[in-house]
Amino acid sequence: METQKKKFKMPHTYVILVIVILIMTACTYFIPAGEYDRVEVDGRTVVDASSYHSVENSPVGFFELFKSIPEGYNEACAIIFFIFIIGGSFHIVTSTGAIEKGIGRLAKASQGRERLLIPLITFTFSLAGGTFGMSEEGIVFVPIGVALARAVGFDAIVGMAIVALGIGVGFSSGFMNPFTVGVAQGIAEVPTFSGMSLRLVVWGVMLTVTIFYIMRYAKKIKQNPELSIVRELEEEEKDSHIDLENLGHLTVRDKLILLSLMGTIIILIYGVFNYGWYLTELCALFIILGILSGFIAGFGPSQIAREFVAGAKDMVFGALVVGIARTILVVMTNGMIIDSIVHALASFISILPRGIAAVAMMFVQAVINFFIPSGSGQAAATMPLMTPLCDVIGLTRQTAVLAYQFGDGFTNSIIPTSAVLMGNLSVAKISYDKWLKFIAPLMGIWLAICAVFMMIATIINYGPF
User: Fold this and answer.
1) What is the pLDDT of residue 224?
2) What does pTM read for this prediction?
3) Are 331 and 65 a contacting pair, CB within 8 Å?
4) What is the per-residue pLDDT for 168?
5) Which end of the chain has the lower number of beta carbons within 10 A, N or C?
């Protein structure tokens, strides 16, 4: 008799994250605990590179492991409530039908040229990521990207990718990113935004590759929707797809709601760029948008409340994922092994030949990014170590900054400890395992290109110093 081979099935997203938590818990028992002293320099708390010392081991016990879960939710509460508020507010707006009609008209206007929307939108968001460091703010645009992608015959993966990967490429290439390159160059004591010409080349190459990758996938599923990585999700969300054949006319109320949405986005960008607005201000903006849109549409207070709750309810899966992902960091922090890992990786780089060390430095930063997914936080933790290391092995400090921005930035699109990635997946309703299947080949391409640019930086003595 023939025995049928069982096909491997990717575990549930929560299961994947719990496995990682258990691995990190085990690590607290056999990785020696240690820490660096922190000092304040120009208002920033950074690591004293020569201060690493062992401390008493602090393994995470059975009960402490489970305590780490609510601690993770507590530390991630800002992004969790941001997701709930964005989901609830956007549901009020979408329930008015105005966005559906607006996106439907854009989709009809682009019929026959749908794929051109991909480079246009990806470039726009990439510019935002590369200039004023758009990151968490991009979460609010993902539902619009998904709705537009579905309207023109693509899927949720394409809708999220044109927004999230566009931002990711700009943020990671960092030609003018104040939150990564600006901070790292300040710590490395090189002129702010110096070396921009090479970073612009990196941005151009990465953006081209990313757009081609998304367009290739979009073309494939346009021709055969069954090939969609999220075909089950598309079936579940079929009723929410925009019907272009029976698209109603834009009423005065619809136009006012769309104008309110555009006005909110303009205010958001202005506030982030000029006043440093973050999640609290963005939440306030979208609460106002939701309530205003509901009243413009003729909803009463009770209906607005019901729509908000319905939208927030849809975000439960993704919002909970963010808290579980943060638990990984809580376990490592409580076990006091993060600094030990950073110290070991920095020591490994120091023994490598100059050319190989530059590439290794980038990969080390990528590994550290899993443990310290905050851009500015990683700069504060690693640049005080990498800067003197470069001086010793003969690499320029600008090369250390490049390694940091590559390692910190691009892997944010795949690591489960990234709150932004989990937030994007939440509002797009895409499970982490499905996204992993889509992004893994592109991540390999990105890292290979980054390695080439690290070698180029070594050859040209990327400077000014």
Assistant:
1) 93
2) 0.79
3) yes
4) 93
5) N
Question: What does the alpha-carbon distance between residue 439 and residue 423 come to, in Å, rounded to a whole number?
Answer: 16
| Mean pLDDT, contiguous 10-residue spans, the chain (465 residues) | 54 82 93 86 70 90 93 87 86 85 77 84 88 78 88 92 94 82 84 88 96 95 93 84 68 91 84 78 90 94 93 82 84 89 83 87 89 77 81 85 91 88 90 94 96 94 83
DSSP 8-state assignment for residue 353 = -
Cα(353)–Cα(440) distance, integer angstroms: 29
Among candidate residues 254, 312, 317, 305, the one with its CA nearest the CA of residue 283: 312
How far apart (Å, rounded) are the C-alpha atoms in residues 287 and 282? 9
Residue reference for tokens 């726009």: 124
Token pair, residue 188, equals: 């490395």
Nearest C-alpha neighbor of 379 from the set 118, 99, 209, 190: 190
- And the tokens for 368? 């550290």
Give dist(CA 71, CA 325) in Å, integer: 11
The residue among 251, 289, 137, 159 whose CA lies nearest residue 214 is 159
Provide the CA 158 distance to its chain's centre, in angstroms: 15
SS3 content of the chain, % helix, strand, coil (to 5): 75, 5, 25
How many helices (H) and strands (E) the chain has is answered by: 20, 4
Please provide the DSSP assignment of 382-443 as one string. Answer: HHHHHHHHHHHHT--HHHHHHHHHHHHHGGGGT-TT-HHHHHHHHHHT--HHHHHHHHHHHH
Residue 369: its H or E element: helix 354-371
Could you give the CA distance from residue 290 to residue 369 in angstroms, rounded to a whole number? Answer: 35
Within 224-300, residue ranges assigned H as helices are 231-236, 252-275, 279-296
DSSP reduced 3-state for 38: strand
